[in-house]
Amino acid sequence: MKTLAVIVAPLLLAVSSASSAQGAGKGIYDKTCSVCHATGINGAPKFGNAADWSPRIAGGAAKLYQSALAGTAKGMPAKGGNPNLSDAEVKSAVDYMLAQVSKPAKKEEATAKKDEPAPKEPAAKKDEAAVKADKPAAKEPAAKKDDAATAKAEKPAAAAAPAVAAAAAPAVAPVAAAAPPTAATGDVNAFNRLLRPMGQRNAAPTQDGIHDPANDGTQALQPPLSAFDKMPKSSAGNRVNWVQALAEKKINPRWDRADVKAEPVVMDLNIVREVKGSMPDVVYPHKQHTEWLDCSNCHPAIFVPQKGANQISMAAILLGQKCGVCHGKVAFPVSECRLCHSKKKDGTTERTAEAPAAAPAGAKK
Amino acid sequence: MRTQSGPRRAGPAFSLALAALSLALMLGGGSARAEYGDVVMNNYSDAAGMRPVVFPHWFHRVRFRCKVCHADLGFEFKAGGNKINMLKIIDGQYCGACHNGEIAWSVENCNLCHSAKPGTPTQVHESTIQKLSVPQGTK
Q: Which alpha helices (DSSP H) does chain A contain, by range?
């Protein structure tokens, strides 16, 4: 308790000066913050629990404010998920929560160190170390339970099994979750101004323009980057090479809804389709497709299983037919020409059935 | 090994497709930045006073192969083409095959699915079709 008191003391400046805002802070806490902080779900430091708070307090009030305002990769949504709150209101709620854990220390130490600024640099490191120390412990065993928990990132599951939830929110920071991507600047001569800047890809649900940030469920949804972090990258779609991720066992999606042991029946057969124009011929690999799909997904409704029976054109694909039923919606998009058009007219194959797993076009550069 | 591509003589059909594609890619930078493949379903939601549903394809793809939903559970490959309603879900069809409190969390978590901005139309976000046919300026 004594050490906590020492750590807490510099903060009290902020806490006590904001004491007039305490009432407002409580109101905001009750309405917004308490959803997670009252019970400590999803790794949130529990209200009034000094053990949860002390490593965070060690980082200084400014850092806590920053986390509360901008959100953190660990799961704290920006402004507690309520964008209607002003910065001052968020801070007052933080102050209110801090006051609960620092109360015992308040009287003894507050006056002693009043004017000393929070020791930012070393404290920040301490905070990181503390986080590292408690994260992997929860993460390692939980990661192995992978296939047992399907909706692990989301709140109800997290409430039941906090350890599993920790696995879904890795300590490694997903960039978009931590720092909201800034809007494109108004520079008309910017390079590639029509292409989406890196920071705007894989946006967290609260910032993606489709989810309603005012919806409380939105806060509980997993940010894509926290899942994509360890997966092989590609240059289009989700920016993830799904086929490679599966081949390298970075993911282990179930083949059966309930049976975790069911294995796909993989068919390794390449179909070469000669194309009329100057583009390389198309090599269609059954292997990668049957790892994800059942024969009946494509045959016979989309593709008649007979040589020469299917008229396929890029126009049809762009309109969402044939290959375009998936490619351009969820499988890699049509911008990745050479992943399909991979067999040179003179007979060289740029990409064989095995190639995307070993060396995808995106990773070749 | 990738070799340098030879001289390209693009046929008219190919040029057309390429033009359409580059146009599509240029128009693709709309305001929404949702994940590729996110499906918004708004068959009945708006009319019922609920937020439309966002289905995150990527999230499910990490955990299930395509076949589980699209072959075993009978989801059509078409956004809004399945006429899913809560009655069917509670009855164990479609989403309800897993979202039953056993395989995944159950239906009382309304806002985890019904999470889109009200009025968002049915769509596959960032799909080729969406880029080709939705005039982005009107949003």
A: 2-17, 22-28, 34-37, 50-57, 61-70, 87-109, 120-144, 155-160, 162-168, 175-178, 216-220, 224-228, 242-247, 286-290, 295-298, 314-318, 337-340, 355-358
Q: What is the mean pLDDT of chain B?
A: 82
What confidence tens digit (pLDDT) does each residue in A76-93 have?
777 887 777 888 888 888
CATH architecture type of domain A270-363: Alpha-Beta Complex (3.90)
Kindly determine whether residue A227 and residue B62, on different chains, have CB atoms separated by under 8 Å: yes
Interface of B with A in 49-68 (CB under 8 A): 51, 54, 56-59, 61-68
Q: Considering only CB atoms, which chain A residues are within 8 Å of B61?
A: 242, 251, 253, 330
In a domain, B95, yes or no: yes
CA distance A71 to chain B (A): 19
User: Where residue B108 sits, what CATH number does that domain have?
Assistant: 3.90.10.10
pLDDT bin (cut points 50, 70, 90) of residue A308 is confident
- The token pair at A67 is 């986390």
Residue of A154, A240, A251 with shortest CB distance to B112: A154
Higher pLDDT, B131 or A319: A319
A15 pLDDT more than 90: no
Q: Please check whether the domain covering A1-186+197-230 is classified as CATH 3.40.50.300.
A: no
Taking the Cβ of residue B107 and every Cβ of chain A, the question of whether any pair is shorter than 8 Å is answered with: no
> Which two tokens mark A326?
């998936």
- pLDDT, greater one: B20 or A281: A281
ipTM comes to 0.77
| Gap from A363 CA to chain B (nearest CA, Å) | 12
